[in-house]
Amino acid sequence: MILETRTLHWPDEAACATFAQALAALPETRRACIELEGTLGAGKTTFVRHLLRALGVTGRIKSPSYAIVEPYELPMPPEQPGQPPGVAPLPLLHFDFYRFGDPREWEDAGFRELFAAPGLKLVEWPRQADGLLPVPDLHLQIEPALDDSRQVTLTVRTALGRALLAAAPDSGAAP
Predict the structure, then answer these.
(1) Which CATH superfamily is domain 4-62+90-172 in?
(2) Predicted structure pTM score
């Protein structure tokens, strides 16, 4: 189900970082499933790195191209009113299904349980596991231009995704 679509223009990597910071500021991001598509070198992993840094992940952030999944633990956000004390940090899983030759490899790898657990899931090359992934909250299609800018189409597929789309800075809207 597509609820809404918006196209952004990222003239440079700083615009990608600004969008990632806006998403990181939303508590909903910590429980979202976000798909990233685009050609090799489009900027999928660059966006993930900016998002993870904005969420407070420290240390090396690796591309999961060979490992297929890289786990991280999100530090707890500052206490919010009404938030129960002592809530455990949420996991973050960064997937890259580029090397999958058959969508059934997703099932064989046991990823169904990982996707059912709480926490943020970032998925590069989701079509390689076509038909097996849960409905993403937000889908980013990143298209590089000749001038190194990016056109990014954001597609909302859930109510949570709608909240994430609200974080998209209007200054990046495509003309």
Answers:
(1) P-loop containing nucleotide triphosphate hydrolases (3.40.50.300)
(2) 0.86
> Alpha-carbon distance 81 to 46, whole Å?
33
Lookup: tokens for 110: 């046991």
- Please say whether the beta carbons of 152 and 35 come within 8 A: no
Q: Where are the domains of the chain?
A: 4-62+90-172
Digit-by-digit pLDDT tens for the chain (175 residues) are: 678 999 999 999 999 999 999 999 998 999 999 999 999 999 999 999 999 999 989 888 887 777 789 999 876 655 555 555 555 567 899 999 888 887 777 778 888 889 998 899 999 999 988 888 999 999 999 999 989 899 999 999 999 999 899 877 764 555 4
Name the H helices within the chain: 13-24, 44-55, 104-108, 111-116, 159-165
CA distance 136 to 4: 13
Tell me 43's DSSP state.
S
Three-state secondary structure readout of 76-120: CCCCCCCCCCCCCCCEEEEEECCCCCCCHHHHHCCHHHHHHCCCE
